[in-house]
Amino acid sequence: MRNAPRQFLKMGERAGKLAFWRFFFRAPHIHSMTTPSTPSTPPEGTGATPRLIADDGDLVIEDTVRWLERAVIGLNLCPFAKGVHAKGQIHYVVSAATDARELVDDLQHELEALAEISAEKRDTTLMIVPGCMEDFLDFNDFLALADELVEAMDLGGILQVASFHPQFQFDGTDVDDVTNCTNRAPYPTLHLLREDSIDRAVEVFPEAEAIFERNMEVLEELGSDGWAALDVGPRCPVHPPGAAAGGLGPQP
Description:
Layout: H1 13-16, H2 57-73, H3 81-86, E1 90-94, H4 100-116, E2 124-128, H5 136-152, E3 159-164, E4 189-194, H6 195-204, H7 208-229
Parallel strand pairs: 1-2
Antiparallel strand pairs: 2-4, 3-4
Helix pairs in contact: 4-5
C-alpha cells in the first residue's frame, strides 16, 4: 500500500497539492473580457502535428466522451465525474492549435468563457488539443504557462488548469505501468476547473489519498489487456500513431 499519491513526472508540488481533485471533478457563448497582460512567451512549434481538419472535431470529442464514460466513470476513477456528465455541465472544445503560442490564445478564450458563465450551466471545460503537444514533457512544461495565464487574467483562486495526456507517466514508474492510465486520455487535454468545485469536493471527501490508492488497485487488477479492451484510444487521423490513451510501451 502506498502512503501518498506519487508525484507526477517533473510536476513536483504543483501536482501534489490536491492532486486527485485536479484529476477530474471540474469539462459557446463567449463574452468579452478585458485582455490580460501577456504571460511568458511560449516557444514556437512545440511538438506540432498537421493542423486539425474541421470535420475531425466531432470525432475528437466523441473519443473523449467515450474515454470519460468507459474509463473515468465506468471504472469510477472519479466519484464526481458522473454527476457533472449527467447534468451536461462539462463543456468539450477542440483546439486547432499547432503550437504553444496558438494554444495559449485558445486557452485564454476558454478561461474567459468559463469565468463568465454560471457553474450551473458549465461546471468545467475539457479543452482537447489533438494538433500539438504530443510530447508529454513539452505538454508538462506548457502547464507553467497556463498557470501564468490564469494569474495574468486575475483568475487565480477562481479557476485553475489541470491536464491529461496519452503519454502521462508518474514519477518512479515505467512507461508501460498500467497505473499511468489513470491520467491518460486519448489526446492532450487541458482541464479547466473552478476552485469552488474543488473546495466542495474536498469537503465531501477530504481523504483524497484513499481514492487515489483505490484507483491504483483498480488499474493493477484490470491490467494492460483489460485497459486495452475498453477501447478508449484516439481515432482522429491527425494524432500521431501509437499514442492511444493508456497505450503501453514506448511512444514514438
